[in-house]
Design goal:
heterodimer; A: about 325 residues; MetI-like fold; flat; B: about 375 residues; alpha+beta; OB fold (Dihydrolipoamide Acetyltransferase, E2P); 2 domains; six-stranded mixed beta sheet; five-stranded antiparallel beta sheet
Chain lengths: ~325, ~375
Amino acid sequence: MSVIATPARQSTGGISARTVNRVVIYGLLALFALFYLMPLFVMLVTSFKTMDEIQNGNMLALPQAPTFEPWLKAWGETCVGLTCAGIKGYFWNSIKMVVPAVLISTLLGALNGYVLTKWRFRGHTLVFGLMLFACFIPFQSVLLPMATILGSLGRFGVTLRNATGLSFGLGNPTVNLVFVHVVYGLGFTTLFFRNYYEAFPTELVKAAQVDGASFFQIFRRIMLPNSMPIFVVTVIYQFTNIWNDFLFASAYAGTGDAMPMTVALNNVVNTSTGVVEYNVNMAAAMIAALPTLLVYVVAGRYFVRGLMAGAVKG
Amino acid sequence: MAFLEINGLRKRFGSVEILKGIDVDLEKGGFLVLVGPSGCGKSTLLNTIAGLETITEGEIRVDGRTINDLHPSKRDIAMVFQSYALYPNMTVAGNIAFGMEMRGVPAQERQKAIDKVAKVLQIGHLLQRKPSQLSGGQRQRVAMGRALVRDPKLFLFDEPLSNLDAKLRVDMRIEIKRLHATTGTTIVYVTHDQIEAMTLATKIAVMRDGEVQQFGTPAEIYNNPTNLFVADFMGSPAMNLIPATIGGNGNALSVVLQREAREPISLPLADAPSGLSAFHDKPIIFGVRPEALTDPEGAERNASNIATADCHIEVVEPAGSDTFAVTNLGGKAVVARLRADANIQPGTSTPLAFNLTKAVFFDPATENRIL
């Protein structure tokens, strides 16, 4: 191919036009990347500076005496509202909320997708349509009704505790948030899995039925092990959304010990005790952003692959 | 009583009737092929036998036991799918053993069964591989292994060879036939390829639009098609179906074939079917297979009723083993099958021998055979 193409290119002078195109494209890309990465750079740099250096120096300058002090302070000492024990407790709060919420919503989404494609029932398109509709309901409109429901659940929890000594987590703010995120995430996770399983060969399910596998055995042994790409996509999507959620977190766990990371970060930045410690704030923000970054770095290559899956046969 | 009996089977999806009363039976150790064009309901019929589709009406019995409402796994069947349907996350051994695992067979016994099947199908060296690391033919073997290992009463094959290339298809066809001969299992096999049907079957059911058009042995289907559809569908090259009229008088009937710009050919019928006299001077469809229309030297020696007529040859197709000559009769291209070394030139007139013992006649209105 190159043998034929090379003389043709030379004769038309195509090389220079090509080069110009390349320069323009890569130049623009570099510019946008710079624009996008600049805030991250400022945050990182600032978080390693002392307060003196921040007040007297250039925002873009590299730290002259890099220090981990702001990171340690953000993690263990900084004040969130009135308590000054750092953000570590809230970090674990978020983990405790995110992990179950992601796992439950993903598994339920997979189960929904499995039923909606391989065990079709009358009106399955309507059910799927309604679940899809749930993806487009704005957060704000469910705030109050959800608050009412959570309130009722909380009162039911109290009744349960009085009767049996156990509340089964009802009324616990973390459990409430898990519940809210699972319900709200179900539309998306179902959408992801349904579309993936739509292209999943039904003959495999039939073969497993002939082999004597039950509904859940087929799900666990055939569907789930072959769903890795979409599983990763859904986990990344759900993890990022739930970890970064501020509205539900502040509405249903905005005060007290169960406060998630996002709300705590907001409180760190808003706490006004004399000088604003930019370095500590930046470090806290970086800590808050790390898990989502980490999830993307670890599973990112599956993310791209997963989004492409089903686009081309084979 | 037959081993597999299907009585009055109907299947409706809403108001659409997919299977319109199927009656088929098969003896133990038989090989039933369901053949027909796509959309004729043959795969649906197979799925109802497997229990993957429910039935609306009728009865399916295997070895005297009604299995209509049983779960697929309780029917004592095994199925080979068109796409092989190998579980991509399991090894070949895992695939073969999955059914046994689901039925709680202990690991040692499973291993023994795997080894036995692997030996029969010569896939021992593939056992630890994943399906994605296998070629098409190997996948096909593994899929058959998964079915064989269950040692079921009934094997179901859903177009198992249609994903293979032409050469491999012939090899696997022979392999399936050998497998059937050595294991003596009862098989129901779906295909749209009439050659597969002819070569493999002990019984063929030709289907169209959810109805069995004809059910019989391959020879019956080939030599005595009950209607135009079966005659046209079975055989390659297809049977010549020529519009004609019945001439002659009384008990000496003849077939009259129109020709372009020449006087019609009249072929005297020595032992015409009795129903044909009612069609005197009326249009019929005259069916003659290419091998029953040949050069006079190549004609069957012991056929009782051969008529020879000059035909204008339009095209000659040498196919190596035979030479096909195309002429025009009754306004249709008609294929004759000659010896490979037949000396024949396009554009000339040559005498062709019609083996009228093998000829069949159809009523153009009902499309049914005239007997």
